[in-house]
Amino acid sequence: MTSLILHFFIAAVSCSVLATATINAGGTWSLLRSTIGITAMHMQLLPNDRVLIYDRTDFGESNISLADGKCRRDPNDNVLKKDCTAHSVEYDVASNTIRPLMVLTDVWCSSGALMPDATVVQTGGFNDGDHVVRVFNSCDTCDWEELKSGLIKRRWYATNHILPGGRQIIIGGRRQFNYEFFPKISSSEKAYSLPFLVQTNDPKLENNLYPFVFLNPDGKLFIFANNRAILFDYSRNKVVKTFPMIPGGEPRNYPSTGSGVLLPLRIVQGTVSVVEVLVCGGAPKGAFVNAQNGKFNDALNTCGRIRISDPNPQWVMETMPLARVMGDMLLLPNGDVLIINGGSSGTAGWEYGRNPVLNPVLYKPDCQPDVRFEIQDPSTIPRMYHSTAILIRDGRVLVGGSNPHIYYNFTNVLYPTELSLEAFSPPYLDPQLSDLRPTIIFPDPQTRFGYRDLTTIRFTVSGTLFPHLVSVTMVAPSFNTHSFSMNQRLLILDSGNGIRAVGNSMYEAVVTAPPSGNIAPAGYYLLFVVHRQIPSEGIWVQIG
Ligand SMILES: *[C@@H]1O[C@H](CO)[C@@H](O)[C@H](O)[C@H]1NC(C)=O
Ligand SMILES: *[C@@H]1O[C@H](CO)[C@@H](O)[C@H](O)[C@H]1NC(C)=O
């Protein structure tokens, strides 16, 4: 009972006017670059504040040349056997510059993750790239490398997740009703079948590609595909729980692309007792076939929220202020969910989306249902199929891409290929809030914590501090493509005895690092101090 009261008290406080001090409630947009040379179809933030971006190789010539007059010769390429343009770039947030990179085989509609050693391991793609595993190291001169050992199955539209042991699991993909791991433990390790992907696959409509996968704090995987979800023990190839169908039964995965997040995990005395998943938007059953016939269905305007830690979990439905297909859902450092990009009719797929939704929407999970959603100010640039969004260290959200055509078509098409990169600054970045914004003084960036380490976080706040409205959060840098962010998770650390003043405008919180790899797989995270829902700039830390 006591913990229940405490929970409601925290929820009520974090949504009160006092807690959420905002001035310009609509956020702001800025155009960072009118062109990055390619269309940002896949994005991953690296721990050196660069962003790895790529589209596909068989698109024709991009708007950026490879370095030093290099060219890629690929006899298998469907469009250009010799291509002297880049289809991947590295974007440097601090200098707002780009560097062309060379991918060797086709990476279209693939997946990946940032590994604990700061390399990106990317898997699959199309054509000659569909079995390939590629590595990108985070360094100033690094470029893509293709590994000799590839995938057992072709992976196109698969979802990857980092596992507690440091490997990746790669789930599904087109006509692949199975999963495999990378790296392999032994040469005899195979792909394992996953009948759930057959059960959720409508052979004509698919609707279960890029499944939404989250690591549950019990070490099992929550897998949502089409309109259903399971809890899956990948180590025993066993479904341990089947969740009810999302009410209404409409599909939420590609090409009826909605999105999903694991809501913030609050660690209290070494455990996470409440685990919730939120799935929003998508397109109704048949929308893809209808779009092929020139009929563009209204996108779904509902979200389903489910407390997967309950003994008998049930979906609770909510209505978004704006219907959306191909929307991205991003966890912001303060625990809010940003819903951004996409359209209000049609589906994912070439030329099948209509009516861009230019306004992002904030979802505040702890607020009462009637005040959870807040419409944000609009961008001017449609971000349709193949658009992306990621959180960066300073709390802004990078938005790029949109390419609903096979080529880089800029004219004679409904939504031109978008080479631009924008930043959306959520309302918490309003300069008028600067006296409430924490600045982290200690620990130093790149500090490594062990599981359960007690760690002192020192920060300043120049205005009045409300100690009970301070929290310390950690956000994993996710791999974003096709409106889904793989490996996305936000942890609210246990700050035990609260906050103490240690000098003029200087404070300390002693927090406990996450307890295990099930709650926080080893690797890089962004750590933030949040005061009255306003996050500090993040610092990179390592766990494990
Ligand atoms: C990229 O586009 C700009 C403006 O649209 C153009 O001036 C430039 O020549 C293009 N560069 C390449 C390498 O295609
Ligand atoms: C798109 O670009 C390709 C390659 O340049 C061209 O063949 C095709 O006709 C273009 N499509 C449209 C609708 O302009």
UniProtKB/TrEMBL annotation:
Keyword Nucleotide-binding: no
Organism for this UniProt entry: Cynara cardunculus var. scolymus
Name the UniProt record assigns to this protein: Aldehyde oxidase GLOX
Localization (cell): Secreted
Leader sequence residues: 1-15
SUPFAM superfamilies: E set domains, Galactose oxidase, central domain
Cellular component GO terms held in the UniProt record: extracellular space
Highest taxon of source: Eukaryota
Domain Glyoxal oxidase N-terminal: 41-428
PANTHER family reported for this sequence: GALACTOSE OXIDASE, SECRETED PROTEIN-RELATED
Sequence ranges assigned to domain Galactose oxidase-like Early set in this UniProt record: 437-543
GO terms, molecular function: oxidoreductase activity
Keywords: Oxidoreductase, Secreted, Signal
